[in-house]
Structure formats: C-alpha cells, structure tokens
C-alpha cells in the first residue's frame, strides 16, 4: 500500500492537510484566548456596575459577583478622578500583565502559545477597554489555569476536526488518483507487457486515449517508440534473409570467378597488343571480385574484417578506381580528375580504401550521368600533423532531401532510383574500422563534397 502511487498520495495529502490545519490552528487558538479574556473583562464590568448601582453590597454578594466573573478583583476607571473596585484576597503575586486594548496579531499569537505550553497556574492581570465606552479602562486579576484548560479543550476540538477533514480529503484524492492516474498508468504498463511478448505484432502497439495531457504525451511517445521498433525488427529480419541470400550468391560467384582466373593466364599469353594491355586490369578486377566475395562470406558470419593497415600510395589506389570506372563511362560526359599528390602515402588497408573511394566516385559519376549534362569528379587529398584528409567532390545536382536525412543508413540512403543505399553505409563502416570518419561536407546545386579523415597517430594502427 505504501509503495503504490495512490497510497503515497493518501499519506502526503493527510500530512499536507494537517500542516495547513496547524497554520490555521495557531491563530485560531490565539483568537480563542483573546475572546476568553475579553469575556472575563465583560463579566467583571457587569459585576462592577452592580456595585456602582448600590454602594452598600454585602460581602457575600460581592464575592458571588467575583466568582461568576472568575476573577479576584476588578478596577473600573470611569474618569480620571473616580475608580470602582471589587476585590477579594489575592493568593499570590501577579506574574504577568496582558493589555488587550490594542494588541498586535503577533503579540496575541506569542502570548497564546506561551500560555498553552506553560502548565502552571499563574496569577495574571488583564487590562482592556470597557464595552460601550463605559469608562476609560477595566482591569481584572485572575488565575491562568482555567484559561489554559479552555485553550487545550478548544485546541483538541480543532485538531480532531482537522484530522477528520484530512482523512476525508485524503480518501477523495486517493479515489481520484486511482481513477485519473493509476488506472491509465496500469493500462500503459499492460500494453508494454503485451508488446514485449511479441514486438513484431502490430496489434500490440498502443492506441493513445488518455485525457490527462502528461499521460497522453507518454502514450504518444510510446506509440512512436513501438512503431519504430516494430519497423526496425521487420527490416532486421529482411536484412537477415537478404544476408543469407547474398552469402549463397557470393559463394557460387566466388567459384565462378576462381575459374575465370584460370583463363586469365592464357589471355596474358595473347599476341594481341590490346589484349596484353587490358589483361592485367582484368586480372586485378577478377582478383578484387574474388576478395569481395570472400569478404561478403565473412560478413555473413561476423562483422566486416578488421583492416590490415600498411603504408599505401594513395594516388595508385585512386588511379585503379578511375581505370575501372572509365570502362563504365562510355557515352557519358563525366571527367575523372585525380588531385592526389604523387608521393603521398597513407596508412590504410589498400583493398578497403579501394572500395571506399570506388563507392564515392561511382555515386558521384552516376549522379552526374543522370542529369545528361556532363560534369567532373575530383579526388584530392592533403595531410596535416593529425590526419590525412581525402575529398571526393563532384559537380552534380546534389543529394536529394531524403538521401540527406538517411545518409549512411542501409536501404534508406539511396540517392537514385533503384539504389540500395548500401555503398555509403559500407564505406562509413570501413573508414570507422580505420579509426577515421566519413562525412558529408556540403551538397547543393553546385555539387557534393565528402571528406575522409584518417588519423596519423599510433591510435590508427
């Protein structure tokens, strides 16, 4: 009970209402004390007026008047020259004097609290103004014990009433919290349990219906989370199926390409100059294809293989990419420009760096070719004390908004119709394996620029 939301609301409400009642209790007790003393002054004034009417009251009647007024003596000053006094023997000296003619609120509260927590019976003097302007001053002497007893009795009644009000308010709030908060929260929890049991079942996704704004916002956030997670799980399943298919295809393709490698030896022995010139490039292409198939098979079993870092002449890698892409550019007015310094060496895996630059260059020239207006693809590089920075730039139309929003996401970041978006995702993963970064610097109508950053420190190794 105490660990539940509604139970804690019940306890907190009771405590807070009691605190509020305490703030009411203190001034109310002070007011009760003031009324009690004023009542005694009024009774004393009535008794003194009886003596004023008849100067020769018997001692027994005078004592009875003082007893009814619950005082020991009365002083009524009607003018500066005359005083009317009712008196009886005083048992002990006066300990305190209270003036009620113009008291402040804080003074009344202070005196009331001091009297309430002082259990002894003191003799006190009370001074006040007579009712109906029947004089200048009235003064009485009385015991403090009856006053304190009346204050305690009144305080207990107030506390009892406060407890009843607190309990009633707490029960009402308890029921309200159960109805407005606890029940909707339990509904959200039950939905989360159902969804956790089968997250791929779209029927388990929550339907927001709460009337409380904060709960509705929580339900909307949960709806968005569940929707995205369900879609991600479905996509993951499709990717797993696609990965299995790719692995099988790569296995068979590797066998075919291995057989093709056997024929390249005879091609290299050809007397035709054109064949002899193209044969090494064909061998390199088949070798890379076999390596890619083997890497794909490894990827199907685990993550992308860790790069084998060596010092590579970057210009040679870029030139190999350009030579391979030149065969696919026939009929397209796309110019490939290598701006890499001839002697620049970078620490990288040559095969993986070839794949990264190939993906970026191929995306660039395909974007330019789609416009049928021609353009330029430039690969340039520079180095500083911290890193090698390789830029792949093009003068194409720029990336569309959808591609920018889902850049580097498989099957979502494709910039052209029919594209899978895998190229940039693979390139980023390969560069991350080098300890570097691949990021989009700019894109627009004037072209697109990607930057590859490879760290030079020992951390890169």
From TrEMBL:
Membrane-spanning intervals of the chain: 6-30, 158-181
GO MF assignments: kinase activity
Keyword Kinase assigned: yes
Keywords linked to the UniProt accession: ATP-binding, Kinase, Membrane, Nucleotide-binding, Phosphoprotein, Transferase, Transmembrane, Transmembrane helix, Two-component regulatory system
EC class: transferase
Coiled coil regions, renumbered to chain: none
Pfam short name (any one): HisKA
Name the UniProt record assigns to this protein: histidine kinase
Classification lineage: Bacteria, Pseudomonadati, Pseudomonadota, Alphaproteobacteria, Rhodobacterales
